[in-house]
Design a protein that fits this description.
Elements (H helix, E strand, L loop, with lengths): L2 H12 L7 E3 L5 H10 L8 E4 L2 E3 L5 H6 L8 E4 L2 H10 L4 E4 L3 E2 L5 E2 L2 E3 L5 E3 L9 H4 L2 E6 L29 E6 L2 E6 L2 E7 L5 H6 L11 E2 L5 H10 L13 H16 L24
Parallel strand pairs: 1-2, 1-5, 5-10, 10-11, 13-14
Antiparallel strand pairs: 2-3, 3-4, 6-7, 8-9, 11-12, 12-13
Helix pairs in contact: 1-2, 2-7
């Protein structure tokens, strides 16, 4: 897949963010970060973004966030510890998260724990962190995957790290969308529905790469990015670092990132020392999704 896939996915993710949303995103997911930054410049200017403990300001860009708080030059408005973000999720003051699991099935179940190969071999993954909790407590959860294939989207996940379906008792909807490099699915009533296919894809091609059964009906073409969306995406991710999450474009994106960081390091006017947090700050836990 090309940058067209990364751009289509970022645009689709951004469209899931609403005005007033409080969005939590991990630092290891540049595609989702690009989408959230883009949404704040287009259709969700009143949304709020937390990443890496930072409450990110509206003029932040993906390269600066990747480099750290010092490069943001005051473009983050506060600091929130990991424990506090978990409390926000439990109180549902955080309204939306983007999550990239290793596997997703047609019921919206997610797997970030382990995958069993066709030969019976077991591959252990980084684990769930809070992936077992967020589908049950957050108002909305949007899933995405950059490799749309039957192994990633099986009939049933190898291990249920987090269950689909939400929780009626808390009002949590659970996973509501799955956005891939080929298509967009929705979840309702424990079933997936194919909503749209991206440019260059057909319904038949998408279904052939999907391991789980899904409803189809009238499947639309994913709406192309508008000029305003493309301009906003370029502004927040001029180096196309969103491509880091796609296997086919990762190498070139890593080279661009290295070159951009080298230029950033050579310009002392663009950096400020990172302000140390109080010694009572809880220890951070790094999560690569």
């Amino acid at each position: 897949m090309s940058d067209d896939a990364a751009t289509s996915m970022a645009v689709c993710l951004a469209r899931e963010i609403h005005d007033g949303d409080v969005v939590g995103i991990g630092l290891g997911t540049p595609l989702a970060l690009a989408a959230a930054l883009m949404a704040r410049r287009t259709t969700a200017r009143g949304s709020h973004l937390f990443t890496g403990g930072m409450v990110v300001g509206p003029d932040a860009d993906l390269l600066s966030i990747t480099h750290g708080a010092g490069a943001l030059r005051g473009r983050y408005t506060g600091y929130v510890s990991h424990l506090e973000t978990m409390e926000m999720a439990e109180r549902r003051t955080m309204t939306l998260q983007f999550l990239r699991p290793a596997q997703v099935d047609g019921a919206g179940n997610i797997n970030t724990s382990r995958v069993i190969g066709s030969d019976g071999s077991l591959t252990r993954l980084p684990g769930g962190l809070a992936s077992a909790d967020v589908p049950r407590i957050l108002p909305r959860l949007v899933l995405y995957h950059t490799e749309h294939r039957t192994r990633s989207l099986p009939q049933a996940v190898s291990f249920i790290t987090g269950a689909g379906g939400g929780d009626p008792a808390t009002g949590a909807a659970g996973p509501v969308r799955l956005i891939t490099d080929r298509a967009v699915f929705s979840f309702a009533g424990g079933r997936a529905r194919l909503e749209s296919v991206h440019a260059g894809q057909s319904v038949q091609e998408v279904l052939a790469c999907t391991g789980f059964e899904c409803e189809t009906g009238a499947v639309a073409q994913t709406a192309p990015a508008s000029p305003a969306e493309l301009a906003a995406l370029q502004a927040v991710d001029e180096h196309a670092l969103r491509e880091l999450e796609l296997r086919a474009t990762r190498g070139q994106a890593q080279a661009r990132l290295a070159a951009a960081l080298a230029r950033l390091h050579s310009d002392p006017e663009r950096e400020r020392p990172i302000v140390e947090q109080p010694s009572t700050k809880p220890q951070e836990t790094t999560c690569r999704r």
